Amino acid sequence: MGKIVAVTGNEACAEALKQINPDVCAAYPITPATDLMQRFAGFVSDGKIDTEMVLVESEHSAMSACIGAAAAGGRVATATSSQGLALMWEMLYIAAGTRLPIIMPLVNRALSAPLNIHGDHSDGMGARDTGWIQIYSENAQEAYDNTIQAFRIAEHLDIRLPAMVCLDGFIVSHSIERVEYIDDADVKNFVGKFKAVNPLLDLDNPKSYGPLILTDMYHEYKRAQHEVMTKVPGIALEVAAEFEKMTGRKYGLFETYRLEDAEIAIVVMSSAAGTTKDIIDQYRDKGVKAGLLKPRMFRPFPYVEIADALKHLKAIAVLDRADSFGGYGPLFSEITGSVMSMDTKPPMINKIFGLGGRDYLPNQAEQVLDELVKIAETGKVETIKEYLGVRE
Amino acid sequence: MTTKPLKLRELAKGEDRFAYGHRMCAGCGAPIVVKQVLMATDYPIIASNATGCLEVSSCIQEYTAWKIPWIHSAFENAAATISGVEAMYRSLVKQGKIDDKQVKFIAFGGDGGTYDIGFQSLSGAMERGHDMMYICYDNGAYMNTGIQRSSATPFGANTTTCPAGDVIPGKLQQRKDLTRIMAAHDIPYVAQASPGNWMDLMKKVQKAFEIKGPKFMNIIAPCNRGWRSRTDDAITLAKLAVNTCYWPLYEIENGVTKITVKPKEKKPLTEFLKPQGRFKHMFAPKNKWMLEQAQGYVDAQWERLQKEAAAGEAEKTPEE
Ligand SMILES: Cc1ncc(C[n+]2csc(CCOP(=O)(O)OP(=O)(O)O)c2C)c(N)n1
Ligand code: SF4
Ligand SMILES: [Mg+2]
To answer: Nearest by CB to A200, which of B69, B76, B125?
Structure first.
């Protein structure tokens, strides 16, 4: 058993990275992820770890240096938020297309304009199609556990893909919570030694990275990339099972809460799931059969498994902490993708909430559940997409 | 490692680390630059490469001209990318995970990928002090995308984004003097070279590899497509660039400037401009002012460089 501490989400992620001791870490500051890297840099300065820090002049260079370092053949990590991730966008595709297992805590934050430093999922959702594995965390414990598991998933010889571990800016990154740390030796043992695949530093077998591939084979490469992604859920579950053995903490591709016998359900990711669970308990006490589904893995998205978990419902509300202007929220779009495979399609609504760090309050969950109760009775949806907690 | 002798007969026997079969245009200056750089040394080399002519033509699915470990990731980040490779090397050596084999790290970028879009990444990597060399092969435009103007494009040149038209006669700005800007980073070694003076170029590469820390070399690389010149003129033009003092050969070592090859007689700039179709309009009588302005700029730059070199000389000679 490791020790129990009171730490912020950023502190917990920094601790996980310290325990893993990556060979290179290239990073650039941005709120709210700055504090994570500062703490990590402190471990390096104090000689607690061997990591070589590359303190670059931009996030574009941070990801570029991570790509160079990972191709060289070693364990690599970075962290960012919001505009930083947006600036990396070009390089995110290149990291994934080059099959480099870089690990990046993404402290979710709103995107400009207007400028806002608080938590929402716009940044992560914008990177949805980059080919990165995306794992979302509800609290500091999950952020810590997911960071450790991410290395195993990403570095698995059948996968070799980059992964971002998402945690809500400020709400999780800067709030102090109870976290159970794993012993250093156990983390080290769990993550294992890094296995280099085709490293640039193998001078005897020179490799060329980053070729030009045109119409003859590009299409096939991209399909191959998708196929690798389809292997991720299986590996993630294997890793989670081993992790449970070590810690007793259980992880799946998503979490369900009082969903098995539910008639209505809210689908929501990250920290908002906690508040929602409380309100579901209250509604259960009142005799309303409400439940929750919290996706953990957003890329690859477990469509079939989620469909199976939702198929018995009479009404579903999907809560998105990001928007697609002129479209539905990104999570809603994925859930409709799941629902498509069901024989009976439950009516669904989409609520956009918490943009730019706007608080997600218990009464918002209540409002959604009340609406779901009505929809379940009548089978009728009035408006599919609406905004929660907007000041009119 | 001892510095290898620069004898043509010996060099010709060495293994090509940049192989033939690449798909750059016939008569292109860039692969000559790469060959000369790699030929100058026996150190193991790992290179990064910015998107551009050299990159797209040297590694096309299944085939690679690079016999050294090589990485291309994007256009504006050859410096950041190689800085990551170098950092990993340092980390693994420090941790005892691999042996120190005195590996040298090079980033190759075109002028667009260096002077313009990659300038921030280059400046950052130099400031961080990585043990690496950045080599810009300067052909004076975005050639790979079809001869668009860059900040390295010389005054007056006709490019596809600053075409010589009825009203605007080509590029109206002088080129950015990147070599000087890199020297202002106070890095240990900065040099300008030309494949027309291969011995000078290779000596500079050899010298740079014996210096720890960030190094920068700017090497002119004639491009017959973009310069509208004959396909067999690359070396002639590379020499004319030097002999007209358009592209002086010099180095700045620890802040001390030295002209490494002084032309026996400084030729008029028109000798460099004339064989190139991109300057053709400048020879029309109404554009005489352009030739004068171009020559004036070269003269002023050459004057300044000579003064700086004289100051460097004075610094080295101790006062009696
Ligand atoms: C971010 C980005 N912008 C634009 C391009 C398109 N592009 C590819 S190569 C190139 C020009 C390269 O010019 P230079 O660096 O001078 O090399 P050259 O082709 O002349 O050898 C451009 C504009 C790109 N690949 N990436
Ligand atoms: S366009 Fe110019 S730089 Fe590009 S390959 Fe051809 S000659 Fe070389
Ligand atoms: Mg160019």
So the answer is: B69
B23: distance to nearest CA of chain A, Å?
12
Whether residue A210 and residue B71 make contact (CB cut-off 8 A), yes or no, is yes
What CATH number should be reported for the domain whose range is B21-314?
A: 3.40.50.970
Residue B297: how many CB atoms within 10 A of its CB? 17
For ligand 1, is residue B119 a contact (CB within 6 Å)?
no
Distance CA A367, CA A370 (A): 5
Q: Per-residue pLDDT tens, chain A, 392 aa: give them.
A: 689 999 999 999 999 999 999 999 999 999 999 999 999 999 999 999 999 999 999 999 999 999 999 999 999 999 999 999 999 999 999 999 999 999 999 999 999 999 999 999 999 999 999 999 999 999 999 999 999 999 999 999 999 999 999 999 999 999 999 999 999 999 999 999 999 999 999 999 999 999 999 999 999 999 999 999 999 999 999 999 999 999 999 999 999 999 999 999 999 999 999 999 999 999 999 999 999 999 999 999 999 999 999 999 999 999 999 999 999 999 999 999 999 989 989 999 999 999 999 999 999 999 999 999 999 999 999 999 999 999 99
B236: exposed, middle or buried (C-beta count within 10 Å: 0-12, 13-18, 19+)?
A: middle
Residues of chain A with Cβ-Cβ distance to B82 below 8 Å are 68
Which sequence spans correspond to the domains of chain B?
21-314
SS3 of residue A9 by DSSP: helix
B283: which DSSP letter?
A: G
Whose CA is closest to B66, among A178, A200, A164? A200
Q: Which of A55, A68, A210 sits opposite B85 (nearest CB)?
A: A68
Is the CB of B102 inside 8 Å of chain A's CB atoms? no
The pTM (predicted TM-score) of the whole model is 0.98
Query: Which of A51, A58, A42, A62 has the alpha carbon at shortest distance from A23?
Result: A51
For ligand 1, whether the C-beta of B214 sits within 6 Å is: no
> Mutate which of B77, B95, B100, B122 to test chain A, going by most A C-beta atoms within 10 A?
B77
Distance B191 CA to ligand 3 centre (A): 18
Residue pointed to by tokens 């038209």: B165
3-state secondary structure of A359: coil
Nearest CA owner, ligand 1 atom 4? B75
Task: Note whether ipTM > 0.95 here.
Answer: yes
Question: What domains lie within chain A, and their CATH numbers?
Answer: 4-247 (3.40.50.970), 254-387 (3.40.50.920)
